[in-house]
Amino acid sequence: MREDLLEVGGKELSSRLFIGSALYPSPKIMEESIRASKADVVTVSLRRQGVNKEAGESFWNIIKDLGVEVLPNTAGCHSAKEAILIAQMAREVFGTNWIKLEVIGNQYNLQPDPYATLEAAKVLVEDGFEVFPYTTDDLVVAKKLVDVGCKILMPWGSPIGSGKGLMNPYNLKAIRDAFSDITLVVDAGIGKPSDAVMAMELGYDAVLLNSAVALACDPVKMAGAFRDAIQAGRSGYEAGAMKQREFASPSTPTVGMPFWHQS
């Protein structure tokens, strides 16, 4: 595998930006935005898209024409049983064993239910799914998800659709430090390109977002901005940032410069 590629779930990706397919003003703008993002992975919701209806079929045709990897999600589920059923249906409909596991525990801030998520993850991993669990930035929950077989974790930056960016970079960094061999994707709360840069500079492997592009004044242009931000953040992380200093330090060398003084 080339160093610039990301290996996820047995597949090689050239982009570290995962993008959602909901909330766009029109299917045309959705398609143009996804193309501008150059994302290789697009999330879709079986429940929301209604793939058995005419509108759903039209949507699915657009996704197929894009030639991207499809990551179905269990958005809207509030129990492990419900999420497992939706995941199994999605595998049949979309022909993939990938599933973004999302089990909501609080309707106000859409925080995932850690107990139901863990229960569903265990069942789905045993059933042959590549589980992408949406979770909070809780290190203990992350460890338990890894223990049941999850090879990918998707901790939130902040609540879904909030646009608040990374609420707790310390927690996210702790997860990164604890799981050096696990693919980590910041999912939810990203509001602007600089948020994505920060996530990548923490060493995360990718960023998943939707509202930040779909609800922008110009979704297509914003998709391009996030494309560039992800690359900049990753390059910065790989290059290694300078250490912060408590005091100023001159950037221009003084050796060999003339010294003027009054006699």
Question: Can you walk me through this structure?
Answer:
It is built from 10 helices and 12 strands. It has an 8-stranded parallel β-sheet. The chain has a two-stranded antiparallel sheet with strand order 1-2. Helix content is 41%, strand content 18%. It has helices at 27-37, 46-49, 54-66, 80-94, 114-126, 139-147, 169-178, 193-201, 211-214, 219-239; strands at 6-8, 11-13, 17-20, 41-45, 69-73, 98-101, 104-106, 111-112, 130-135, 152-155, 183-187, 206-209. Helix 8 (193-201) links the parallel strand 11 (183-187) and strand 12. The mean pLDDT is 91. The protein has 263 residues and is an alpha/beta fold. Helix 4 (80-94) packs across helix 5.
Detail the topology: elements first, then pairings.
Blueprint: E1 6-8, E2 11-13, E3 17-20, H1 27-37, E4 41-45, H2 46-49, H3 54-66, E5 69-73, H4 80-94, E6 98-101, E7 104-106, E8 111-112, H5 114-126, E9 130-135, H6 139-147, E10 152-155, H7 169-178, E11 183-187, H8 193-201, E12 206-209, H9 211-214, H10 219-239
Parallel strand pairs: 3-4, 3-12, 4-5, 6-9, 9-10, 10-11, 11-12
Antiparallel strand pairs: 1-2, 7-8
Helix pairs in contact: 1-3, 1-10, 4-5, 8-10
